[in-house]
UniProtKB/TrEMBL annotation:
Official protein name in the record: Catalase-related peroxidase
UniProt keywords, alphabetically: Heme, Iron, Membrane, Metal-binding, Oxidoreductase, Peroxidase, Transmembrane, Transmembrane helix
Bilayer-spanning residue ranges: 17-38
A Gene Ontology molecular function term of the record: heme binding
Family membership noted in the UniProt record: Belongs to the catalase family.
GO CC entries: cytoplasm
EC number from the UniProt entry: 1.11.1.-
SMART domains found in the cross-reference section: Catalase
Pfam families, sorted: Catalase
Taxonomic classification: Bacteria, Pseudomonadati, Pseudomonadota, Gammaproteobacteria, Pseudomonadales
Organism (species): Pseudomonas yamanorum
Domain Catalase core: 29-359
InterPro entries in the cross-refs: Catalase, Catalase_core, Catalase_sf, Catalase_SrpA-type_pred
Length: 360
């Protein structure tokens, strides 16, 4: 998977951004990556991947060789053990094989690779399942339950609202409150973030896929779903993050020394009328939830030379039996991840003179 004979290269993967919620006095990271339409050349007014990646660099600072978002992270590896519950809904081999290898990555939602672990209340978890038939399933999940906005255009407006003023180097304090006031769809996210606190461990978090997809069975029947993973650790409730900059990776390594870490993969089936193509909307009421299997992590690696560094966790890399919804953020994420990936791979030589990622 990784050519260890070549010079060290930067981690290559997902994205995210930091938003200052001036109205409630906290700094919050909004995860999901840089968004743009897949083909921006169709309409001069359409957002392009490079436009949003440029905006992320403006807001987060430019750190050559690193992801434009989720820049600080750690690689993990293990396997997925399937259960029978998802098999009637999807023909994907990941749900029929007893065990599927996985490579993953935990990260902070920030474009700054030196951000303190306690600076944001959100953690992210990206996975690549390598199926026996050669297909792959890649997914990026976050510890928040919902995304603040539902379109790439609104996401770009949010980026501009939080951009630093060239004269002061700081965002306009009125920018984010004004944005949220003009976008009522952000209410569910704001309600969650007001009580969210940084956790002390990656291992105690529940991670949500947020976007909807379709499971497709052998007969061609399609079922809209959202998925997420729930920790099975004894202290799954977690604790508030301690003071300091780099405790998450150390905590993860210590836990893995004691034994594998496990999460249950829950697949929530959409009810009729649920919003399938808008990640800013919750699915209210009772829903059927499938226990699709158990995710088992056995080891971790530093991101600079770990197996996850060269993986672009594109959410549209899907196996037969899983299909994308029409959520515009999915195509947007895919396009922007590719743009960010190309930038990072062209900046490898600059990493050698950059500070180490453990810098406070």
């Amino acid at each position: 998977m990784v050519d260890h004979s070549s010079p060290p290269r930067p981690p290559l993967s997902t994205a995210s951004l930091i938003i200052r919620l001036a109205s409630i006095g906290v700094v919050v990271a909004v995860v999901a990556g840089a968004f743009a339409y897949v083909n921006g050349s169709l309409d001069p007014q359409r957002l392009r991947p490079k436009t949003l990646v440029n905006a992320l660099e403006t807001n987060n600072g430019l750190h050559p060789g690193y992801r434009r978002n989720h820049a600080k992270g750690v690689c993990v590896a293990g396997y997925f053990e399937s259960s029978p519950e998802a098999r009637q809904y999807s023909s994907a081999q990941v749900f029929s094989e007893a065990r599927t290898p996985i490579i993953g990555r935990f990260a902070l939602p920030s474009g700054n690779p030196y951000a303190p672990d306690s600076s944001v209340p959100i953690r992210s978890f990206a996975l690549q399942f390598s199926l026996a038939n050669g297909q792959q399933w890649r997914t990026g999940m976050n510890s928040m339950p919902v995304f603040p906005v539902g379109t790439p255009e609104a996401f770009f407006e949010m980026l501009k609202a939080g951009a630093p003023d060239p004269a002061t180097g700081k965002p306009n304090p009125a920018g984010m409150p004004a944005f949220f006031a003009s976008h009522p769809e952000t209410a569910p996210f704001l309600a969650w973030v007001k009580t969210a606190k940084p956790s002390a461990s990656y291992a105690t978090e529940t991670y949500n896929g947020i976007n909807a997809f379709y499971l497709v069975n052998a007969s061609g029947q399609r079922q809209a779903v959202r998925w997420g993973v729930v920790p099975q650790s004894q202290d799954a409730a977690g604790a508030t993050a301690p003071a300091g900059s780099d405790f998450l990776e150390k905590d993860l390594a210590q836990r893995l020394v004691a034994g594998p870490l496990r999460w249950q993969l829950n697949v929530t089936l959409a009810n009729p009328g649920d919003p399938v193509d808008d990640a800013s909307k919750t699915w209210a009421g009772e829903h059927k939830v499938l226990n699709a299997g158990t995710l088992v992590l056995e080891s971790s690696q530093p991101q600079m030379d770990g197996d996850c560094r060269d993986i672009n966790f594109d959410p549209l890399v899907l196996p037969s039996g899983i299909e994308a919804s029409n959520d515009p953020l999915l195509a947007a994420r895919s396009a922007a991840y590719a743009s960010s990936y190309l930038r990072r791979t062209s900046e490898v030589s600059q990493l050698h003179s950059a500070p180490q990622e453990s810098k406070p």
